[in-house]
Amino acid sequence: MPKKEIRQQMIKRLNNLPFEQKKEQEKNIYELLFGMEQWKKAEMVALTLSQELELTTYPIIEKAWKEGKAVVVPRTKKNREMDFVVYSSTTPMETSSFGLTEPLKTLPAIPKSKIDLVIVPGLAYSEKGYRVGFGGGYYDRFLAYYKGTTISLVFKEQKLVSFPVEAFDIPLDFLITVEKVKSLKK
Description:
Elements: H1 3-15, H2 19-35, H3 37-41, E1 44-46, H4 58-66, E2 70-77, E3 81-86, E4 93-95, E5 101-103, E6 117-119, E7 124-125, E8 131-132, H5 138-143, E9 149-153, E10 174-176, E11 181-183
């Protein structure tokens, strides 16, 4: 199935996921994430400010702050690239051309080398750690030169056996589902 169709199917599936079922899955996924050694050791965590259909990232942000971790969030740039900016409750934000909330363009970016852990968003995932994202290629471009740990947090409804993998697709290090943490590191 082409990625465009997978995106459409997954967006519909996630939008139809019952609230209580979503919350229960999130609770289990958070517990697994917070128990990982990679989470415990991370001093700087990168993640998105979640949209309604995605796994809610605000509890992760709160936990990171409570543990003294720095949180960075993405900001899109020209040429379908992105960087990350330190995020706090007072970070000045704006709405991007995609309708997403992101830090102002004038704020300084954080070097990739300072980010210990990236929680990578997506819509669908394969057993081999590949993902279908939202369709801009921003994360694949960023991850192509990122050396730290990558994790995706996956609802049961997002798992697929396979889909077309392209040369620029970057596999993740870990998938966390309701049931387990799956290591994909070679």
